[in-house]
Amino acid sequence: MSQQPTTPRLRPLPMLGVVVLAVLMLVVWSVVTDSAHRSRSRTPVELPTAEAPPDPGVEPPTIRLLPSDAAVRSPDNRPQQQLAGWAASMSEELDIPRPALEAYGYAASALEVTRPKCGLSWSVLAGVAAVESRHGRHGGAELDRTGRTSEPIRGLPLDGRDGVMLIRDTDNGKLDGDLVFDRAVGPFQFIPTTWKEWGTDADGDGVADPDDIDDAAMAAGHYLCASGGDLRDADRFWEALLDYNASRSYGQDVLDHADYYGRKSRRLSARR
């Protein structure tokens, strides 16, 4: 009589082996899921989560302030170009157009004289502009040597839908081109009513223009200083950012960019 093949019996694993196997499986699962999470949340510059106030970065050199009655008609006479060398040394590696970096440095330096208790750094202005418009490059726009955008940068209509504010037209479309609702304008995304209060002619060309990053950076600086006071204080810093845009995630994004620019500028300076 032939014997039927028997099914081999599995020997039970020792308890220690079971524990080791379970630990290995947990480690593999953790690595895989963490990798997947990081691949989804990665930002272009790998920004950390920074704490306020951000690193102010390498300070721009002392500048000569533009007299209030000056008229600078030539692009080559922009007062911001006092900082051309400072900006050129960092522009490419920070991925900030040189006219934009000159504008941030000039605004911060000017405010250090006119609002010495504010403590606003160029890196904060750079953080705001990075989030608002990629330094005037939103939608494929570029900055010319005068600091103006090649194409108008306009926000969505503030029509009250999809979580945006409802602001009906206040300027007859003069700034934003919209006769029905207001829109945010320029590299720092000012709404017309705010620009009417804070608009500044920072480059002396005779016009306060929100599409000119020189004017917009100075106006944003005045607005932040007036809103927060001493921006070297963490609570005041947050108060100013939330007044600029009432979103905690927006504020954190600005803070992370500002801290990144400040720290990287210091590393660049240390190499030289």
Question: What's the short story on this structure?
Answer:
By secondary structure, the chain is an all-alpha fold. Helix content is 45%, strand content 0%. The chain is globular.
Report on this model:
The chain has 272 residues and is mainly alpha-helical. The chain has a domain at 50-152 and 201-271. It is 45% helix and 0% strand. The chain is built from nine helices and no strands. It has helices at 15-41, 84-88, 91-94, 98-114, 122-133, 192-198, 213-228, 234-244, 248-271. Helix 7 packs across helix 8. It is globular, with a radius of gyration of 26 Å. Mean pLDDT is 85; it is low at 1-13 and 16-44. The chain crosses the membrane at residues 12-32. It comes from Haloactinomyces albus. GO terms for molecular function: peptidoglycan lytic transglycosylase activity. InterPro entries: Lysozyme-like_dom_sf, MltB-like, SLT_2. Residues 38-64 are annotated as: Disordered.
Helix content: 40-55%
N-to-C terminal Cα separation, in Å?
Answer: 92 Å
How is the biggest beta sheet arranged?
Answer: none
Runs in which pLDDT lies below 50 for 5 or more consecutive residues are: 1-13, 16-44
Please tally the β strands and state the result: 0
- Average pLDDT for all residues: 85
Global outline: globular
Q: How do the helices and strands follow one another from N- to C-terminus? A: HHHHHHHHH
Number of helices: 9
Radius of gyration: 26 Å
Strand content: under 5%
Structural class: mainly alpha
